[in-house]
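Task: complex structure prediction.
Instruction: return C-alpha cells for all chains below.
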Amino acid sequence: MDNRPIGIFDSGIGGLTVFKEVLIELPNESIIYLGDTARVPYGTRSKDIIKKFALELVEFLIKKNVKCLVASCNTISSTCLEAIQKHSNIPILGVVDPAVKEAIRTSKNKRIGVIGTNATIESKIYEKKIKKIDPKSQVFTGSGSLFVPLIEEGLSNHSSTKKIAEDYLSRFDKTEIDTLILACTHFPLMTEIIQEIMGKKVKLVDSAKPTARQLKEILKAKKMVRGESKKPEYEIFVTDAPDRVYKVAQRFFGNKLPVKPKKVTF
Amino acid sequence: MDNRPIGIFDSGIGGLTVFKEVLIELPNESIIYLGDTARVPYGTRSKDIIKKFALELVEFLIKKNVKCLVASCNTISSTCLEAIQKHSNIPILGVVDPAVKEAIRTSKNKRIGVIGTNATIESKIYEKKIKKIDPKSQVFTGSGSLFVPLIEEGLSNHSSTKKIAEDYLSRFDKTEIDTLILACTHFPLMTEIIQEIMGKKVKLVDSAKPTARQLKEILKAKKMVRGESKKPEYEIFVTDAPDRVYKVAQRFFGNKLPVKPKKVTF
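Output:
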C-alpha cells in the first residue's frame, strides 16, 4: 500500500482528459496534476527542448512526493519518456503504450492510422511499438498539429475546422485503415468531426481510458494502491493563467474541476 | 556615434519582418536578433508570464552589449514595454507607437480597426494611444490569435484560413473603418487575404516599416548611429530549433537570413 499521490503532468490542459479517466478508474487515489500552460504547445518544438521542459515538470512532482508519474501528453510520451524514466526511480507511465495495445486489440485488418502533433509523428514511436507487438501490421501516420490551437480557441465545431480536418485526414484515404489512434490528448474533443470524415467503419482509439486502466494494473501489481479510507486529495498546478484554466477546463475535463488550479513558477 | 549593435527581440520569428525593415532602413548597423521559439506564442498567455519571459530576453541582449532595443513583438510591446524600459537605461522601442502614428497619418475618417493577439487586444493599448493623440478618433478592435498558428503551419493561403479570417474580420462590418492595423508581426503574411475581405477602401497598416523608420530617427536624434565603415555584423539567436528557423524564416524575412541562427538556452 502506498498513500502518496499520483502525479500527472502535461504540456497544458489536454491531459485533463487523462486526469478524468484516472479519477473514474481509481477513485480512492490522491492526484496532483501539473500543466505547463506557460509554454504550451510542445508538439511543434524540438526533442531537446521538450525533454528539458518535461524534466522540469517531473522534478516539481517528485519534490511533491508522488508515488508514480503519468506523462499524459503524447508529445512528451513519444519523444523523451525513456529519459524521464532514467531520471527517477518511481514508475512512469506514458500514453503511447496503452493506446498502442488498445489499437491492436481494436483493429481487425491490422491497418492502423495515427494522427498526432508534429513531434509525436516525427518520433515514429507508434510505428515502432505497433510493429514490435505485431510485425505484420501496417501503420499510416499524419500530423494534425493545427487541431490543438483550433480546439483551444473553441473552434472545434467551426466549419473551417472541418475543412482543415478533411485535409489532414485525407492522407488516410485509400489506406483502408479500420482503426485510427488520436495520438494527442486534445483530439478526443474533435471525435465527432473526425468520425464523420473517416466514416463509421473506422474505430477511433484515444489514450485516456487505456492509460487509466493500465495505471490501475501497475498500482495493483506493485501493491501501491492507496489504503486510506479518508477522502483522496487533489491538487492542480499550472505555470500560467490558473483562472483561465479553471474556466476552460470543462471542455477537457467534462465537468467542473474538483479544485481550483494554482500557479507555480519554475 | 555608437558602434554597438541594435538588439531586436521577439516571441518567435514574426519579428523578422521588423528585422528586415531595420536592415533596409539602417544598412550600416550591426544587429542581434533574439527569438523565443521555445516558448512561442506569447499572445495567448497572461501579462505576468509575458513580462517574465520578455525580461529574460532583454537580460540576454543587454549582456550582449546592445546600444538600444526593439521589442518587435506586438504582444510584448502592448503588455510590458514600460516594465522593460524601467529595467534598463538604453532606449527601448516597441512596435505600437510607430503603428499608431502611421495609422493616424493614414486614416481620413479617423475610424481605425486593430486586429491582434488576445493579449494585445486585451491590453487596450491601441485605443489608449490612438485616442491620446486624436481624442475624436474611434477605434474598433478584434482578436485574431488563430492567424499565428495558421501562418506558422504554412496555411496562410488555405481556403479554411480565409473562412476563419472572414469570421475574425466580420466584427469590423458596419464600423466603416478606413484603416486596419495589423497588430501582430505575423499578420503581414496574410495581407492578401485580409485586403480581399476588407475591400480596397481599407488601408492596412503594419508596424515593421514605421518601427524601422522611428528607430532611425531615434538613433539620429541621440547621435547613436554606427560610425564604422567596415561591414556591419549580424547575429540571430533562438531558444529552440535553429535549423528549422533557418528553413522557414524566408516567409517572414522575404529572403535567406544573412546568418544561420544559433541556439541559446536560458
